[in-house]
Specification:
This protein is α+β, with helices and mostly antiparallel strands. It has 2 helices and 5 strands; from the N terminus they run αβββββα.
Length: about 110
């Protein structure tokens, strides 16, 4: 019977460590679904606008950031059009004209290999 206690203790410890991770993953999954329902194309190449109004696409994965600094809904990253650092926010594709959308897809930020 004493052999079962260390295994059970390890299971409890593992589940306690996994709970916060599962909560965070669940939160970001829910946030992604809500953003998609509101018209934002989250979870891949997303059209964003910098503070100077430039439109370009960037990889936007909720909860993850490799080439930018997350600041809530916005991110601080380099604008490939104006070649400056700026806060960028996602833009609903439905709010853009066909020309703006085409132009945004022609300008990508730095790709991650």
């Amino acid at each position: 019977m004493t052999k079962c206690l260390p295994g059970r203790a390890a299971q409890v410890l593992t589940s306690r460590r996994a709970a916060p991770v599962l909560i965070v993953v669940g939160f970001y999954a829910l946030a992604t679904l809500v953003a998609r329902r509101r018209g934002y194309n989250m979870g891949g190449n997303v059209v964003v606008r910098c503070r100077e109004g430039h439109l370009f696409t960037t990889i936007w994965v909720p909860g993850a950031s490799v080439k930018s600094l997350k600041l809530g809904w916005a991110r601080l990253q380099r604008c490939p059009i104006g070649r400056h650092w700026s806060l960028v926010t996602p833009v609903r594709d439905s709010k853009l004209t066909d020309e703006e959308l085409r132009n945004a897809h022609e300008h990508h930020d730095l790709r991650i290999p």
